[in-house]
Design a protein that fits this description.
heterodimer; A: about 220 residues; alpha/beta; 6-stranded mixed beta sheet; 5-stranded antiparallel beta sheet; 6 helices; disordered C terminus; B: about 575 residues; mainly alpha; 25 helices; 2 strands; about 75% helix; globular; disordered N terminus
């Protein structure tokens, strides 16, 4: 049992039909820090995040342990893990407005009343520089705006750590830099640990102090 | 500049062949449109004019409002209209709810069971299922017998009016049992378009229970894609005749049944009344769709507020209860209905409280000849209309295959769905009257046409997807080996499409075997199919013969599906 805050993996690895996808992964991410995992496609990067979130289905087996703020994650239901998962596809719900999409994420623990919720949504819109976009159809937003809404929707559910799966892959280079800065500021301000999966070295270098390269059956840590 | 060059290049490559095929394509499109639209349009005119008193053949020479006044005064007309409206809307809504609950529950055992039973459940004709339901639920039915005399204490059949209850609840039940598998089939086909898995992952990582995640993040988007199939279900529920005769109320029946009675009345002047009622029926379907749409709009506005209220576990228990409760009843009722057809058809005598009959095949033997004739007519019609539909569909699809751009767009869809959406009872009578005046009624060609009207759209839609999904390189490869267009079609395209063609044929057979009104109205009383015989017998005929007839009607589509599956599986070449 670890007493440290942050996200910690100890000897964590995935096996697909008995064969390890990568060597056991051991790392600790302090609050406000980012660890990046890069590697060729098919090496199990995305599956690793799904496994941490408790959403991995199919013929996989998980070995090793993961802790969030000292609490073991293994065996918890996905909805009880308090891990925010951000995908390359922002997955905004097309039947809801932008504000309703944010409200979909806003947990009721600290905002149950209608007025209070509306207030928090308005503040959230401001933080992602989308003032006055609340009633818009998400399909009318640009790629960068959608990515910010998805990120904020996750933050409104009050996660204790973020798992980011190629979050910038669908953005063009200038937007990418913008989003990186935006994300880094948010993570620092909220003191959230984040695990970033990407195949883009620039993403990894710009954001992460710890970087890991996953290879099939072989892991090397190339910088600390 | 580059775009212009590409266009030029494309024109040089594409134009000559397209031009060569153009006349054929136009002829086929015109032929199919005429086949489908002519009866619908003429039929509608053929009830609209008589509804205003114009029908020279039986003495209506001038326009008047007399039929409408008569209809207004007809006792029970408003109850009949409301019954149709109510049963259509209620059954469509409940079927929709059941399908959504099933999908929200994830991969449960009952969903796997239903998916396995789906093809047979969709293929079983409405009439056969309705007859089975009567045998199961009536006061002297199997269900009562199974619980009598113990534990119910009944020594003679209890007294209750069900099916054929005056509130049409039995009709609603029957429609739900038949439409839920259909809606599930359509929903399963639409599911890959809504990113179900990704959205569930997203919602669960935000803390949502899986069922709640599905209800809030997947359902509204999926429902939007089911709009047209739901319209079809509503329209069928409001206007169907065959299920309403077997299961629906008697006095007054639903409007659709009333119309048929007036059309079959020996007093020919009742046809003016029937025509006015047919126009009313058309309006009733329109009203039902408007109400449905208005209800859906209000419902979704509420739903979207609920979806964004942040509650993570809404509807968890409702999904569990509705899912297991609703669907186990549904599956049980469908299977027991079909089983009761079998049991009744094999009964020699069946004293009341006994749970099982004395077995015997006397009914089969005694009515063998008559049954064989009816079955042969049914098979001939089904095979004939399916083969025709296959030929027309394949020819149409092949002729459009060389065309650039979006093949068979909205126009084709409208033409194809016209006979399916416009209520049968509203236009088939007009068609029948016109055919009679042209001296065509009571012959094979018109009857076959009447079946083709409903078989062709289904066959075409079943073939269009696989045909357009074919890899064009196969045909190109064959053409480059010097094969002509016909050779390519018969030796490459058709063998590649063997399985979809067989499935489409089976679907065509299932549609034709289930048809009731076209046979009754266009057959001029000279043709009896299993469907029309079952409906006739259901109003007080020999129960065992009814069971045999309905069983045969249910067996034919299942047999066709099975044959298609077997023939599709065997390989041409030895391994």
């Amino acid at each position: 049992m670890s007493q440290e805050s942050g996200l910690e993996l100890r000897g964590f690895r995935l096996l697909l039909r008995g064969e390890a996808l990568f060597q056991p992964l051991t790392l600790r991410i302090a609050p406000g820090e980012v660890a990046a995992i890069t590697g060729p496609s098919g090496c199990g990067k995305s599956s690793l995040l799904l496994a941490l979130a408790g959403l991995l289905e199919g013929p996989f087996r998980i070995e090793g342990e993961a802790f969030l703020d000292g609490r073991p994650l293994n065996g918890l239901l996905p909805e009880r893990r308090h891990l925010g998962l951000i995908f390359q596809d922002p997955l905004l719900l097309p039947h809801l407005s932008v504000a309703q999409n944010l409200a979909f994420g806003l947990s009721r623990r600290n905002a149950a009343g209608r007025r209070q919720r509306a207030q928090l949504i308005a503040e959230a819109l401001q933080q992602i520089r989308l003032d006055g976009f609340g009633e818009r159809d998400p399909a009318s937003l640009s790629g960068g705006q959608r990515a910010r809404v998805a990120l904020m929707r996750s933050l409104l559910s009050q996660p204790k750590a973020l798992l980011l799966d190629e979050p910038f892959a669908s953005l063009d280079p200038e937007l990418r830099q913008d989003m990186r800065r935006f994300l880094a500021d948010l993570l620092l301000a909220r003191r959230l640990p984040a695990l970033l999966v990407t195949h883009d070295r620039q993403d990894a270098e710009a954001l992460a102090r710890q970087r890991f390269l996953l290879k099939n059956e072989h892991q090397s840590k190339f910088s600390t | 500049m580059e775009a212009a060059l590409r266009a030029l290049e494309q024109a040089m490559r594409g134009r000559p062949t397209a031009d060569r095929r153009r006349p054929w394509r136009l002829v086929l499109a015109a032929l199919i449109s005429t086949l489908l639209l002519l009866p619908v349009c003429l039929g509608l005119a053929g009830v609209l004019l008589p509804s205003f008193g114009y029908m020279p053949a039986i003495g209506g020479e001038s326009l008047s409002l007399q039929p409408w006044r008569q209809l207004w005064d007809e006792p029970g007309i408003w109850t009949a209209s409301l019954l149709g409206l109510f049963s259509g809307l209620a059954s469509a809504f409940l079927s929709f709810v059941l399908v959504m609950l099933l999908l929200a529950g994830g991969r449960t055992w009952i969903r796997r069971l239903l998916e396995r039973l789906l093809a047979p459940l969709v293929a079983v004709p409405h009439i056969a299922l309705a007859v089975g339901l009567v045998f199961l639920l009536m006061p002297s039915g199997w269900l009562v017998r199974l619980v009598s005399p113990w534990p119910s204490g009944w020594q003679r059949p209890p007294v209750y009016a069900f099916p054929n209850d005056s509130d049409a609840l039995a009709l609603i039940l029957g429609l739900i049992i038949k439409e839920t598998p259909f809606l599930l089939l359509v929903a399963l086909a639409a599911l890959p378009q809504v990113k179900e898995l990704q959205r569930l992952r997203m919602a669960r990582s935000l803390g949502y229970h899986p069922a709640t995640a599905w209800l809030k993040a997947v359902l509204p988007d999926l429902a939007r894609r089911l709009r047209l199939p739901l319209f079809a279900v509503v329209a069928y529920g409001v206007s169907n005749v065959e299920m309403a005769i077997v299961l629906g109320p008697g006095a007054p029946p639903t409007l659709a049944v009333m119309i048929l009675q007036w059309f079959q009345d020996p007093d020919l002047t009742r046809r003016f009344l029937g025509s006015a009622a047919a126009v009313l029926q058309l309006g009733l379907v329109g009203l039902a769709l408007l109400l449905w749409q208005a209800g859906a709009r209000a419902g979704w506005a509420t739903w979207h507020c609920l979806a964004s209220d942040g509650r993570r576990r809404t509807g968890k228990f409702a999904v569990q209860c509705g899912l297991y409760g609703g669907h186990s009843i549904l599956v049980l009722l469908s299977l027991l209905s079909l089983a009761s057809l079998l049991v009744w058809s094999l009964s020699a005598a069946w004293r009341f409280p006994a749970a099982w009959p004395q077995w015997g095949i006397a009914t089969w033997m005694r009515h063998g000849d008559g049954l064989w004739q009816i079955t042969a007519t049914t098979i001939l019609l089904a095979a004939g209309s399916s083969v025709l539909a296959l030929l027309l569909s394949l020819a149409a699809l092949e002729s459009e295959s060389g065309r650039k751009g979006r093949p068979g767009g909205r126009g084709a869809l409208v033409i194809l769905s016209a006979p399916l959406v416009v209520p049968q009872i509203a236009f088939l009578f007009g068609t029948a009257v016109l055919a009679a005046q042209a001296g065509l009624i009571g012959g094979w060609p018109v009857l076959l046409w009447g079946h083709l009207l409903f078989v062709l759209p289904y066959v075409y839609l079943a073939l269009a997807g696989p045909f357009r999904g074919l890899d064009p390189r196969y045909a190109a490869m064959a053409a480059s080996l010097g094969k002509g267009r016909l050779a390519v079609f018969f030796r490459v395209t058709l063998p590649l499409l063997r399985r979809p063609v067989l499935t489409a044929a089976a679907i065509g057979v299932a549609v034709s075997v289930a048809l009731y009104l076209p046979t009754v109205l266009l057959g001029g009383g000279r043709f009896t199919t299993l469907a029309s015989e079952a409906v006739t017998l259901s109003s007080g005929g020999d129960r065992r013969l009814l069971a045999v007839t309905a069983l045969l009607q249910a067996a034919l589509p299942l047999l066709a599906l099975w044959l298609a599956a077997v023939a599709g599986r065997t390989r041409m070449a030895k391994p």
